[in-house]
Amino acid sequence: MVIRLNKFTVCFACLIFLFFFTGCEVKNALKEVDRIIYTVDSGPILPELQAHEVYTITPSNITLKRTGIYSNTEVYEGEWAFSGDEALLQELFTIAKRKDCSAYSRVEPEDAPDGGHTIRLTVVYADESECTLIYDPGVTYKGADELLDKLKEVLNNLKSHPSMAPK
């Protein structure tokens, strides 16, 4: 039995073939990371000591903005810029770029602790899309340990530390 293919059938088959390969290639493309935002909200302490800290980390610098949660705060408020270790920053951004947000899965604790601070880790991509991991007390994320550990290493190895008192 001889099967005859007309031009339309061949073109259609080629288009489907190209569609599938193009779709896979785009899906696996890595996004460029613009900045990483690390937010810490203090846990159950006296209201006047509760703080909201936002670290904005780019490949070239780090800023910290700290505010008190209540109007009668005793928290040193302000905004500071400081430098970090370039090699550690490069490693952090490489790790952040390597995984898509879907690679992280939230793991709830069996028995949540009473209180504790809340952390938000947000990776902001060049197209302004975001991947946010919210670490409520006791929560972890499967697949995110390397990213969180490198972020903490960057913050613990700053070249210049901000003053605790505002300028």
Task: Kindly describe this structure.
The N and C termini lie far apart (87 Å). The radius of gyration is 23 Å and the shape is globular. Mean pLDDT is 83; it is low at 17-28. The strands form two sheets. It has a six-stranded antiparallel β-sheet, covered by helices on one side. The protein is 28% helix and 29% strand. A hairpin with a 4-residue loop joins β6 (118-125) and β7. The protein is an alpha+beta fold and 167 residues long. The chain contains three helices and eight strands. It has one domain (33-156): Mago nashi protein (2-Layer Sandwich), CATH 3.30.1560.
Set out the fold topology.
Blueprint: H1 7-27, E1 33-41, E2 51-57, E3 62-68, E4 78-82, H2 86-98, E5 105-107, E6 118-125, E7 130-135, E8 140-142, H3 145-156
Antiparallel strand pairs: 1-2, 1-6, 2-3, 3-4, 5-8, 6-7
Helix pairs in contact: 2-3
In short:
The protein has 167 residues and is an alpha+beta fold. It has helices at residues 7-27, 86-98, 145-156; strands at 33-41, 51-57, 62-68, 78-82, 105-107, 118-125, 130-135, 140-142. It is globular.
Give helix % range. 25-40%
What's the shape? globular
Number of helices: 3
Q: What is the second-level CATH architecture? A: 2-Layer Sandwich
Structural class, by secondary structure, is alpha+beta
Per DSSP, what share of the residues sits in E-state strands of 2 or more residues? 25-35%
The H-and-E topology, N to C, reads as HEEEEHEEEEH
Q: In the CATH scheme, what's the topology name?
A: Mago nashi protein
Q: Biggest sheet: strands side by side, in what order? A: 4-3-2-1-6-7
Rg value: 23 Å
Q: Low-confidence parts, pLDDT < 50 over ≥5 residues? A: 17-28
Report the end-to-end length measured between terminal Cα atoms: 87 Å
Average of the residue pLDDT scores: 83
Largest sheet: 6 strands, antiparallel
Tally of separate domains = 1
CATH class: Alpha Beta
Number of strands: 8
